[in-house]
Amino acid sequence: MIGTLAALAAVAWTPLALAQVSDEAATAGAQGQLLADCFKGQNCLAKRTAWEHFTDDLPSCMLAARVWWSPRPAGIPVTLVTQASAERLDQLRAQCATWRGPLAAALYLPLYNPSSHELSAESKQKLQAMVAGIDELFQKSESNNSGSSCQLRLILLYELFADQKAMVLYPVNSLRNWARLMADTDLLTNIDVDMIPSVSISEVLGDAAQRAVYEEGCRTGSVYVWPAFETHCAGALYADTVAVQGKGSLPEALKKCLRRMRPKAPFSHNATNYDKWMTATEPYDITYSPQFEPWFLSWRWGTLWYDYRYRGYGKNKIVQAAAMNASGTTWRVSPDGYLVHRKHAESRVRKEFLKAKFSKKDMDALRGTVYEHVESLWRATGQELAAGSYMARLERSFTRCMDSLPWWKREQGGGSG
Ligand SMILES: *[C@@H]1O[C@H](CO)[C@@H](O)[C@H](O)[C@H]1NC(C)=O
Ligand SMILES: *[C@@H]1O[C@H](CO)[C@@H](O)[C@H](O)[C@H]1NC(C)=O
Ligand SMILES: *[C@@H]1O[C@H](CO)[C@@H](O)[C@H](O)[C@H]1NC(C)=O
């Protein structure tokens, strides 16, 4: 089997992306093929995204160009779930290097396509270039014989836009959900692609006795937060080094280029209680505080979905954490693992969001901005949470897909509790 790894990798093209279905589809991994099938038969050219789709909270039409699914056995039975745009493939490579289990990522390409009846030559070219880039990453990862890196499961999703302005609306929560559909382990951890998991996470979860403790906790309603750090000097490679060197190296690193995540926004991560974590050897409980946005290990069958309406920038992860808290989650912190932020260029939509936020203009004047719409969604979500009626909004195409995947049927998923 080892010799035919590449050929066994799932390969599935949508007819829209490329006219011919590749021969390799016949030998595609069954799971990857089932996922690819979810995207067939849509006419997304007729439903190209415009700005109003966002302000009216309409789901967008998403297409899959290709699925890659490593046939290698899971190194650890825990799936890291993430999403990335084209320019972040290098971050994905770095995550893969310190993760030993399946790494499921939804990769995204927005395409401005003026025509409503055909894919432009430029769109096709961009798709093909991205397929080639991802393919190279996948093949390199598959042929890496160091034996300790992740098993990639990738889907390249693309969205057609009628309106160039709307292309900043990165559908982060939809992508997180689609990526999670590639997880078939009971444990998963959603970690944004710019965060590098410490090697110690894979080590502790690779130990059956230690993993059993996490499993029991997650199965019974706890999640385990990974404390997050960022760098304020040195480059991306420094972050990679800190992730490898282990918790014992952190006191020294904190005197150099490492610091706690987002010190200027303590509500994001301070609830983790970093002081306690530095000396903790056992998991400990923490209290959720408003706008906490941790990354954590959780039970696949108990992790709430992400609300697709939040896209572009702002509140997307916070909403899910708030809903998890409202549903009675016990928040615990893992003493073993941590994450290190890997520096990257700031996105344009983030800059615009923050500019609107700190503009001192009132919401009327900001109508039509990402900031204004996300804030209004957040207020409405807060009311629903308080009333106990909030449910993350999911696209119908998404739930239909989930229903078609055998590993998402509870009785076959090995899930209980
Ligand atoms: C191979 O895997 C090792 C260990 O995970 C990693 O450090 C290295 O960068 C990988 N090489 C490639 C070419 O991806
Ligand atoms: C951060 O958390 C610590 C420990 O829980 C607490 O003592 C401190 O007041 C918090 N700081 C901020 C700025 O919230
Ligand atoms: C988190 O959930 C608990 C238990 O349901 C609740 O008492 C608490 O008010 C929530 N915290 C916030 C900040 O909403």
Question: What's the topology here?
Answer:
Blueprint: H1 5-8, H2 30-37, H3 51-55, E1 63-69, E2 78-85, H4 89-97, E3 102-112, H5 121-142, E4 151-161, H6 172-180, E5 187-190, E6 195-197, H7 199-206, H8 208-219, E7 222-226, E8 228-231, H9 236-245, H10 250-255, E9 258-260, H11 266-269, H12 274-279, E10 284-285, E11 295-299, H13 316-326, E12 330-333, E13 339-341, H14 348-357, H15 370-387, H16 396-404
Parallel strand pairs: 2-3, 2-5, 3-4, 7-12, 8-13
Antiparallel strand pairs: 1-4, 5-11, 6-13, 7-11, 8-9, 10-12
Bound molecules: 2-acetamido-2-deoxy-beta-D-glucopyranose (3 copies).
Signal peptide: 1-19
Membrane topology: Single-pass type II membrane protein
GO molecular function: glucuronosyltransferase activity; xylosyltransferase activity
Task: Explain what you see.
This protein is α/β, with parallel strands linked by helices and 417 residues long. It has one domain. Helices cover 36% and strands 17% of the residues. It contains 16 helices and 13 strands. The strands form two sheets. The protein has a nine-stranded mixed sheet with strand order 1-4-3-2-5-11-7-12-10, with helices on both faces. A four-stranded mixed sheet has the order 6-13-8-9. α13 runs parallel beside α15. The longest helix has 22 residues, at 121-142. The model is unreliable at 1-27 and 412-417 (pLDDT under 50). The structure holds 2-acetamido-2-deoxy-beta-D-glucopyranose (3 copies). It is a single-pass type II membrane protein.
Roughly what percent helix? 25-40%
Mean of residue pLDDT values: 89
- Weakly predicted, low-confidence segments: 1-27, 412-417
Q: Helices and strands, in N-to-C order?
A: HHHEEHEHEHEEHHEEHHEHHEEHEEHHH
Strand order of the largest sheet: 1-4-3-2-5-11-7-12-10
DSSP helical segment count: 16
Strand content: 15-25%
Small molecules bound in the structure, each named once: 2-acetamido-2-deoxy-beta-D-glucopyranose
Structure classification: alpha/beta
Q: Give the terminus-to-terminus CA distance.
A: 36 Å
Main location: membrane
GO molecular function, one term: glucuronosyltransferase activity
Pfam families: Glyco_transf_49 (PF13896)
Keywords: Glycoprotein, Membrane, Signal, Signal-anchor, Transmembrane, Transmembrane helix
